[in-house]
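Order emerges. One example.
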Amino acid sequence: MIFVTVGSTDFDALVAKMDELAAHLDDEVVMQTGLGKYRPKHCRSFRFAPSLNSYYDQAQIVVAHGGLGTIVEALERQKKLICVVNPATYDRHQEHLLSTFASQNYLLWCKDLERLAEAIQQARTTALSRYQPPECHIHEVIRDHLVRAMS
């Protein structure tokens, strides 16, 4: 199964392109369409769900916008991930995120929706690196701050 998610925004261009491709794929395609207006005709879709866990778990490939939460959710489940920048993001931060994750071979960055079919084919055969989240030390920073504040 290919699971497509656009998060809590709208990304009709991605949804419409995947719907077009779904008509010609052997895979089942399921899409989370968020606030978008486009309604897929060639696959199952829904706007929002209480949890996307079951969709991630069933997916062989995840196609998504470049949101950090979505990226981490898919990569922590070791899913093959294809990301596309949502041009509606206000500061183009998704480009920086995708550049960083793609350079470490964690995901495939599809920079042009017209090449999404190629990215899906590439995902089927490409070995991506296993995601290793960076160590978190925020608890130590908070503790040190509190100790200094109480002194």
User: Anything to note?
Assistant: Strands lie at 2-5, 29-32, 44-46, 61-65, 80-84, 108-109. The first strand starts at residue 2 and ends at 5.
